[in-house]
Amino acid sequence: MPPLALPDVRRVTLPNGLRVLLLEDHELPLVGAAAILRSGEVWVPDGRVGLAGGPGQALRSGGTPPLSPDAVDRLLENVGARLDLYI
Which of 54, 33, 36, 52 is nearest to 44 (CA)? Predict the structure, then answer.
């Protein structure tokens, strides 16, 4: 069995402080992205039980300042994209 060859991963920090790990594969004309947010019950302060689910739901169903939730859905559909959140 040949040894496992790990792909090259480039680490980039955007001007807003977001850290990005970039893994390029030019075999198919596809783009994939995943964001990991510090969210969940482990990050909720004491006495604030149940607070963790709200931000994730708002990210997907609340839209953005210039776009309604329906407009976000249309935009994603027009470019063949999808946005999934797992809470």
Answer: 52
pTM to 2 decimal places: 0.51
Per-residue H/E/C for the chain: CCCCCCCCCEEEECCCCCEEEECCCCCCCCCCCCCCCCCCHHHCCCCCCCCCHHHHHHHHHCCCCCCCHHHHHHHHHHCCCCCCCCC
- Which residues of the chain are modeled with pLDDT < 70? 39, 53-57, 59-60, 86-87
Specify the pLDDT at position 26: 85
Phi-psi region of 84 (alpha: psi -120 to 50; beta: other; left: phi over 0): beta
The whole-number pLDDT of residue 55 equals 66
Residue 73 to residue 85: CA distance in whole angstroms: 14
